[in-house]
Design a protein that fits this description.
elongated, 146 residues, mainly alpha
Length: 146
Amino acid sequence: MLPSRPWPLWLLTCALLIGFPFQTLVHWLGAMDAGILHPQGDSPGPVLLGTVLFSAMVAPLVLGVGWLCLRHYRPGITLLVWRGERPARSALATAASIVAMAFLLREIVEGIQGRSHWFEYLWPAYLCLWFAWLAAMRAAAVGRSA
């Protein structure tokens, strides 16, 4: 069941946008501490700047999807909601979610195989948050009141 108010889902949406640069920073710090980076290698600065810029570029899209799904939020809906009186909306939201979630699930499974350091599990954990967000947005879009 989704929360009774939409603010936890908005909090998750913002956490996803902020979490990408943060998990990259923690990953690079862990890799530097573990000594697996080449001492004469490139600085992690450009990578971190790139993640911040990428998050800023996708923020309007992610926040727009959140707004479209949550603007007529109806409390008490479940993740498996299906509205028979709006089959097109239910089918379209479900199909789009399934495609994105299948991609995420493949990335999560590949991400947890063969890892040897703790920081290498940050990316699959971060993708799990996206998986949950997609499931919640699908349910909110299908179950909304308007």
